[in-house]
Specification:
By secondary structure, the protein is of the alpha+beta class. It contains three helices and four strands; from the N terminus they run ββααββα. The protein has a four-stranded antiparallel sheet with strand order 2-1-4-3. A hairpin with a 3-residue loop joins strand 3 and strand 4.
């Protein structure tokens, strides 16, 4: 098993466009919006992935780094229910067990950020690895 990293930051209201967030939509592949199901990230273009990780610690470290980039913009900054340390501990527990980890946070100005680490292969969907699809298409 390995993991693919994904992120999205945008207008939070755009997440309401659920049709575009489902793989059955013709707009799904080209949409930057996060999918409704975490495993469906694997259907997005391999270029949407921010990286591939073979070790859970490296995957969790990437998530923590990305969270650090948005920390100052959080809507509820300073009033967190779950600390970054708890998020990392959760990721380190869940990822090796094949559970996707996705953090979603509201930012100031009505924006929303998603930081996700998706298991590959995935226990909830049968989508092929994006890197394998890319190699089969002859893209290097």
């Amino acid at each position: 098993m390995h993991w693919h990293a994904y992120q999205w930051t945008g207008n939070g209201a755009d997440r309401g466009n659920e049709a575009e967030r489902r793989p059955t939509s013709p707009d799904f592949s080209g949409s930057a919006l996060p999918p409704m199901r975490t495993g469906d990230w694997l259907l997005k273009s391999a270029s949407r992935s921010s990286g591939r990780y073979d070790e859970a610690k490296a995957a969790a470290d990437w998530m923590a780094t990305e969270f650090g980039k948005i920390d100052g913009m959080l809507l509820q900054r300073g009033r967190r229910v779950v600390t970054l340390e708890e998020r990392i501990a959760g990721a380190l527990d869940l990822l090796p067990r094949g559970v996707d980890v996705q953090w979603g946070d509201w930012l100031r100005g009505g924006r929303f950020a998603t930081i996700g680490m998706i298991c590959c292969p995935n226990r909830h969907v049968t989508h092929p690895c994006p890197l394998r699809r890319r190699a089969e298409a002859g893209i290097t």
